[in-house]
Amino acid sequence: MNNFKAIVLSKTGDQFTREVKSIDKSFLIHGDVLVKVDYSDFNYKDGMILKNGGSLVKDYPHIPGIDFAGTVEESKSEKFKAGDKVILTGWRVGEIYYGGYSQYAKVDGNFLVKAPKNISTKHAMAIGTAGFTALLCSFAVQARETILLGEKVNDVLVTGATGGVGSVAVMILSKMGYKVHALTGKKDKTDFLKKLGASVVLERSELEGETRPLDKGIWDCVVDTVGGKVLAKALTYTKPTGIVAACGLTNSFKLETTVMPFIIRGVKLWGINSVDTPMKRREFVWSQAESLIDMKKLDEITEVWSLQKLISSYDKILKGEVAGRVVVDVNQ
Hints:
Blueprint: E1 3-12, E2 15-24, E3 33-41, H1 44-52, E4 67-75, E5 85-89, E6 104-107, E7 113-114, H2 121-142, E8 155-158, H3 164-175, E9 179-184, H4 190-196, E10 200-203, E11 219-224, H5 228-236, E12 238-246, H6 260-264, E13 268-271, H7 279-292, H8 295-300, E14 302-306, H9 307-313, H10 315-318, E15 325-329
């Protein structure tokens, strides 16, 4: 198939457009591995890019979509051959390189991971960047009792718990045996979070008040997906030697805090960047996904959208109206 469909973004002056177009393979100018895409997914960053480029896309026309999974069709890379099932997350694909909202994608072979045998391409995208980030955050939490030889982790706070990263983090951390405290601004999602494994559901307003240098230690560790005041407050409630894994900034990229949690309690702020994760770590994380993520539960919190639905509904994720995960079937 020389012609296929993809979402194409265009920008002329202040005029920004997004539409599903028919294009051919000559459009794909990057990389050395051609992949027939089965599925992509929908992340907060994708919503920003679909809205107006999100200050992330510099060159137009452009194919968005920061993740995809599918089958190698042609390869000039020694690492892959036709028929290999592969996963791509990050590496600024969908930003500076053409992305996964397309029936075909062509990328640098160094960006690809071979899909684990027991994870389908659909489940790989139900995990996607959000789930991959959640795994990285969960391993950071676990590091307190493994790498750092600290006390056992019991209570873990997850902020933005109904979002893509947060919901998968709740699942993983509960599977690891921790008592998960899920923080959300959605009062109607208590049952949703309990089904994922949350022991306690908290309202976001509880962490939006005035921040003191230190508060009573409540949580051993924190996975923060929102940043801003919520992250600042969470730091003050973290127990001695706790780890706070920070991976998001939907609330704010600013952090107004003091050195007190770090110096008085030895709290560690662990930044999580899933975009540039080294390949050895990527391969390890994907190898652990099946044992740490309940695929049946994942199915229950995953919607499937078409490319056309993305065009009409991309703003929902920016408004906080998407709970769980969205898989994009590029062939619908």
